[in-house]
Amino acid sequence: MKKPKLSFWQIWNMNFGFFGIQFSFGLQQSNMSAIYKYLGASEHEIPILWLAGPITGLIIQPIIGAISDGTWSPRFGRRKPFFLIGALLASVALIFMPFSSTIWMAASLLWILDAGNNIALEPYRAFVSDKLNRDQLSLGFLTQSFFTGLGSTLANFTPAILISLGFFALSDTMENGIPVATYWAFFIGAFASIASVLYSVFTTKEYPPTEEELKKIQAEKAQGHIIPRMFKDIIEAMKVMPLTMKQLIPVKFFTWYAMFCYWQYLTSTLSLSLFGTLDQNTDGFKQAQVLTGQANGTYNIVCFMLAFALVPLARKIGAKGVHFVSLLLGGIGLLAIPYLNITDIMFSIPNPFGDGSVAISTLYLFSFGLGIAWASMLAMPYQLLAGSIPKDKTGVYMGIFNMFIVIPMIIQIFTMQYFVYDWLGSNPINVIRLAGIFLILGGVFALFIKEKKPESVSA
């Protein structure tokens, strides 16, 4: 079936649910390490407590991708039911997370939260390939980058905004030590998750399968072959993996290893480099948590502001060229973090949430480079991949491709937990330096990718 060209607002509407999914991810990226520390975790325990994300992604996304490829309902569609189920699970976990009384309660809720997000996330990637022709793929995936940046930005800034508006003070905490502003940020995230997905579900229709595809789906359902086909599809797809997909493996390894280092240890790095402490009971650590949200919010602002600008640039110099330059800038930004501070002021802007102005310090310089890298990471690899995979296996390949994200995260968790953190002098600042080097290495490997024309891809 020839796909019609969609308008900008049609592409906007279909991707709007990504906003809520990424709001949820943004909350955990900026707050989970601090929540664990408030509940009594040590620096050495932080990596293993992040295991939920990559494990649920590794298990759920390929399975959901394969199942959604073989799903069709005239009323609910193919991918949309998974968006909705995932958003509901994530919303429930977000509501209960700040009430955690123990480390393992918080860790268990994170497993539910990540399971919900992953159920929604993978079909959303396939949704773009389902709906858009090749000429609009860049716009589709970069629209997702825009909503990723917007959702994560608001998630990261929400605690600081609530404090700036005077609803809560930095010192206001719940009985478990978690700041009250953090609780309300998670509550707002729960609403954003379900509301934005519902908007996409009700404003976007999916294309029905061809008669041949429909007969195959119905036959598998009648014979109970959905689960066997799912595993068969995953195994067969991995055997005939396109060359472009294989060449993306080292790129994805270094970039996602780096990002997990960053998310786990930025708060501790800022607390140590700016305030000279790793004690979670000090005001310095609480201020570092707020700064983490603001820094992450800044790089996500850069992400969604530049997401659409990368479209013409990718057409001019190619997706791999854009990815190399972007990761290089991101790596330089992370390497600069220990040399930046909050006392050297670059400029001031009017305070949108109160009187006076907000001083912008040199600390935020790294966020500009990381924001460019983040926008590229969320779009360019998928653009490179989308043109090299069989169209009838989009879901399963997108699910397998997610393994290139979560396996580096799993490797990061166990290596950091058992020897890398000690090898780096048990210093979170050195973890951030390692992340910067790895982003640059990911960019270098991107230059070796050979794109494969879609005509040469067989189903």
Could you characterize what this model shows?
This protein is mainly α and 459 residues long. The protein has a single domain, classed as Growth Hormone, Chain: A (Up-down Bundle), CATH 1.20.1250.20. It contains 19 helices and two strands. A two-stranded antiparallel ribbon has the order 1-2. Strand 1 and strand 2 form a beta hairpin. Helix 2 packs antiparallel against helix 13 and helix 7 runs antiparallel to helix 17. The longest helix has 30 residues. The protein is globular, with a radius of gyration of 21 Å. The C terminus is likely disordered.
Please provide a brief summary of the model:
The protein is mainly alpha-helical and 459 residues long. It has helices spanning 8-15, 17-38, 46-49, 52-69, 80-96, 103-131, 137-164, 180-203, 211-223, 226-239, 243-247, 249-275, 283-306, 310-317, 319-336, 365-377, 380-386, 394-423, 428-446; strands spanning 345-350, 357-361. 71% of the residues lie in helices and 2% in strands.
Write the layout of secondary structure elements.
Layout: H1 8-15, H2 17-38, H3 46-49, H4 52-69, H5 80-96, H6 103-131, H7 137-164, H8 180-203, H9 211-223, H10 226-239, H11 243-247, H12 249-275, H13 283-306, H14 310-317, H15 319-336, E1 345-350, E2 357-361, H16 365-377, H17 380-386, H18 394-423, H19 428-446
Antiparallel strand pairs: 1-2
* General form: globular
Q: Give the name of the CATH architecture.
A: Up-down Bundle
**Percent of residues in helices:** over 70%
| CATH class value | Mainly Alpha
Q: Over all CA atoms, what is the radius of gyration?
A: 21 Å
**CATH level 3 topology:** Growth Hormone, Chain: A
Number of domains: 1
**Alpha-beta classification:** mainly alpha
End-to-end separation in angstroms reads 15 Å
Mean pLDDT: 83
Biggest β-sheet, characterized?
2 strands, antiparallel
The poorly predicted ranges are 454-459
- The DSSP helix count reads 19
The number of strands is: 2
